[in-house]
Prior knowledge:
The chain contains eight helices and six strands; from the N terminus they run H-H-E-H-H-H-E-E-E-H-E-H-E-H. By secondary structure, the protein is of the alpha+beta class. Strand 3 (133-135) and strand 4 form a beta hairpin.
Amino acid sequence: MDKPATMLLPPREVLSDAERLVRARAFADELASRRTVRDFSPRPVPRAVIEACLSAAGTAPSGANQQPWRFVAVADPAIKRRIREAAEAEEREFYQHRATPEWLGELAALGTTADKPFLEIAPWLIAVFYERYGVDAEGNRHKRYYPHESVGIATGLLIAALHRAGLATLTHTPSPMGFLNAIVGRPRNEMAYLLLVAGHPATGCRVPAIERLALDAYSSFL
């Protein structure tokens, strides 16, 4: 078996440990200001900004380098309207029939309901899909390795990139999300992962007063 082709690691900036720490802390501080937003402004966001953020997401590691993520960025008002209608239908079913009282209690603290106006108001909806399996030119199926994990990492990078670009985001996961394939024209081998709402927060936007876990509550050093 032939050895795989390789290349030199691209040059990295040489930093001292002190410089590394400054950068790491600055990045952590910047992300600490990230909050999930449900009140968006209709203020437009250039497509080029979304493209740049998606390019950042596409640098994520993936199982066997299969890169199973697929992103559909939607700005068309008519398509956003269809997505909202379908998502709210699933949300009403969830709130009325599927959610447990305990779950509804947790959501009540965040002030969420089945109404999702942000799906039309925000300038961009990014539908995130993962490939359940690949399909070659002859129609043959090929296994995908760790698609959920790979797409999760890519989505995290996308959220960080959008925040870095000064935009607000919301991860929206109506369940089930099969309607997305039909609305945005994705094939059957792709599964909807989540809807990422992106744009500017509305003027005077307020968010729940919540606290994040302290570092020592979720990290251990051995």
